[in-house]
Amino acid sequence: KAGVTQTPRYLIKTRGQQVTLSCSPISGHRSVSWYQQTPGQGLQFLFEYFSETQRNKGNFPGRFSGRQFSNSRSEMNVSTLELGDSALYLCASSLGVSGEPPLHFGNGTRLTVT
Amino acid sequence: GQQVMQIPQYQHVQEGEDFTTYCNSSTTLSNIQWYKQRPGGHPVFLIQLVKSGEVKKQKRLTFQFGEAKKNSSLHITATQTTDVGTYFCAGNGGSQGNLIFGKGTKLSVKP
Question: Which of A37, A77, A81, B49 has a Cα at 20 to 30 A from B69?
Fold first, then answer.
């Protein structure tokens, strides 16, 4: 089976712009979770989608949003980018909801905001 | 909300020495998971612990889940350079039901 695919791998944006990141889960997986990873902060939970419904949301501002399509692919959008949004964004899929392991992570999208 | 604390943040060891990372949750967990992230890579699932007091071993790695299901540890015996990476614990048990990760322990091993 192919693993979790995230595109693009790298992005450079300027403040105020918006960005959309994509995640294709492992075939058959219905749950997709998104995490922000920054040095010293570890993995911070953004949101989880299960069968096209947002199941959980972390403590991030409304500029961060996401959605999941009927084929389980997910997108994450960040509007009005700030310098502090520079991070590695990881997507993870699982067969069931995120609390049921294992989570399979993609290689991430490295976002740099200048 | 639920918090998962992990210590130490960094650990530098000589090859052959042992290594332990500790994880503590502010709430009782239904399960705890451990992941390893190699430099430049993504987190990879290692194991899940579910039962109070559970101990599981994977070769040189020993995982423990506390009796109160609020803490856990990962112990590596006789570290090797292949053990280099960041080890994350992740707990599930808050009202939200999502997985909360600790900040990780970055292990470096000097040959």
Answer: A37
Q: pLDDT tens digit string along B38-84? A: 999 999 999 999 999 999 999 999 999 999 999 999 999 999 999 99
Q: Measured between CA atoms, how close is B15 to chain A, in angstroms?
A: 25
Which phi and psi angles does A32 have, rounded to 5°? -130, 125
Residue B65: how many CB atoms within 10 A of its CB?
23
Q: Say whether residue B105 is in contact with chain A using an 8 A CB cutoff.
A: no
Instruction: Determine the residue type at A96.
Output: G
pLDDT of residue A41: 82
Cα–Cα distances (Å) from B54 to A20, B61, B66, in that order, read 42, 14, 7
Phi, psi of A93 (to 5 degrees): -120, 155
Q: In terms of residue numbers, what domain contains B27?
A: 4-110
Instruction: Using alpha carbons, select from B94, B56, B58, B83 the residue that is nearest to residue B72.
Output: B56
pLDDT of residue A96: 78
In total, how many domains does chain B have? 1
Distance CA A26, CA B64 (A): 30
Number of Cβ atoms within 10 Å of the Cβ of B62: 15
A64 has pLDDT over 90 = yes
With contacts defined as CB-CB under 8 Å, which chain B residues touch A102? 33, 45, 48
End-to-end CA distance of chain A: 37
For the domain that residue B99 is a member of, what is the CATH number?
2.60.40.10
